[in-house]
Amino acid sequence: MTERAHTHPSVGVDGAIAAVRARGERVTTARRAVIEALAAEPHQDAEAVAARVSRDQPGVHRATIYRTLQSLVELGVLAHTHVPDGATIYHLAVGAHGHTHLQCARCGRMFDIPIDWLAELADRVDQRLGFALDPGHAALLGTCCDCLDPK
């Protein structure tokens, strides 16, 4: 799991649970446990979520946790981001302002940035290449200031 330098506004368990119900879905023990795990610590991969849920709710089977992550993404309650050379990370998506991720290639820290910072790039790519960029789906690699100038 990586350290977070900046986080998006917290959605909270209640907002995510309300979103599940608003979509006509049941709030199962597994769904609640996954939501609570990601509300407590965003940017976790599936293994970290499963470990936390297994610790907090030992009766929830590991395979159920993985299916729950997928179903909550499909419902729009969670979002996932592909991290270069790493596992996909998850975070609560309901009510969160659009953001994307930067990852330091040296230390692994994750940084949230507003997705609109990439709007000009997305427009240029679309105009020049006819390619619709999805900047929220994958983390962009770079080097953070701490790794560029270690003290």
From TrEMBL:
Cofactor entry: Mn(2+); Fe(2+); Zn(2+)
UniProt: Fe cation binding residues: 97
Homology family: Belongs to the Fur family.
UniProt KW keywords: DNA-binding, Iron, Metal-binding, Repressor, Transcription, Transcription regulation, Zinc
Binding site for Zn(2+): 104, 107, 144, 147
PANTHER family membership: FERRIC UPTAKE REGULATION PROTEIN (PTHR33202:SF7), ZINC UPTAKE REGULATION PROTEIN (PTHR33202)
InterPro entries the record matches: FUR, Fur_C, WH-like_DNA-bd_sf, WH_DNA-bd_sf
Entry's cofactor comment: Binds 1 Mn(2+) or Fe(2+) ion per subunit.
Source organism superkingdom: Bacteria
GO-annotated molecular function: DNA-binding transcription factor activity; transcription cis-regulatory region binding; zinc ion binding
Coiled coil regions, renumbered to chain: none
Organism: Calidifontibacter indicus
Lineage: Bacteria, Bacillati, Actinomycetota, Actinomycetes, Micrococcales
Pfam families recorded: FUR (PF01475)
Keyword DNA-binding (UniProt): yes
Protein name (record): Fur family ferric uptake transcriptional regulator
Biological process per Gene Ontology, one example term: regulation of secondary metabolite biosynthetic process
